[in-house]
Amino acid sequence: SEKGHMDLIEAMKLLVCAKRSMECNLVLVGFGPELPRLQAAVRSLGLAFRIAFAPDESDIVPFLYLADLFVLPSRSEGCPHVLLEAMGAGVPIVATAVGGIPEILTDGETAVLVDGRRPASLANGIMRMLQSPALARRCARQAREVLGSRFSTETYVRNLFTIYADVLDSIEADSSCACPAPLA
Predict the structure, then answer these.
(1) C-beta atoms surrounding 168 within 10 Å
(2) Got the DSSP string for the chain?
(3) Where are the domains of the chain?
């Protein structure tokens, strides 16, 4: 699936094998019809004690406020709304650098960005964030600031007015051209 849940499950296996003493648990939200396949993979990898599945209709926001980390393992993505929700919740983010995600987040400043479709890269990004509480706090704070400055209603309206002004200016410039007289 393009959501990358299987990549995250495989990354979790790598984390559990690499850091046996580390308490690392995962709650998957938003998996749709992939649930049976994902549950089977979790069982076959011996991760049933580490990975839980939220009911598919669950609102992710309450989970964000309880999480130590939000991971977006997408294989392709536009501008994911859930990413903006995670930024607003102030939770540190690890995400794949696909689609529009690098236009929203900056590696090492507002998140840890990793290569898509690579569970090892995802596992390394998760470890990087979990092993550096200072990085996690800084990224979460800066992501929240970016959300407020770039994605607020005020910013949206200001940008919309700028676009309208540019369109009106171009229409006025075009109307000053010599146009044929209307037919009578």
Answers:
(1) 10
(2) -TT-HHHHHHHHHHHHHH-TTS---EEE---GGGHHHHHHHHHHTT-TTTEEE--TT--SHHHHHH-S-EEE--SS-SS-HHHHHHHHHT--EEEE--TTHHHH--BTTTBEEE-TT-HHHHHHHHHHHHH-HHHHHHHHHHHHHHHHHHSSHHHHHHHHHHHHHHHHHHHHHHHTS--PPPP-
(3) 5-154
pTM for the full predicted model: 0.85
Q: What is the arithmetic mean of pLDDT over 32-59?
A: 94
Q: What is the DSSP string of 46-86?
A: T-TTTEEE--TT--SHHHHHH-S-EEE--SS-SS-HHHHHH
CB contact set of 110 (below 8 Å; sequence gap of 6+): 87, 93, 104, 139, 142, 143, 146
Give the tens place of pLDDT for each residue, 143-179.
999 999 998 888 888 888 899 888 888 888 776 655 5
CATH homologous superfamily of 5-154: Glycogen Phosphorylase B; (3.40.50.2000)
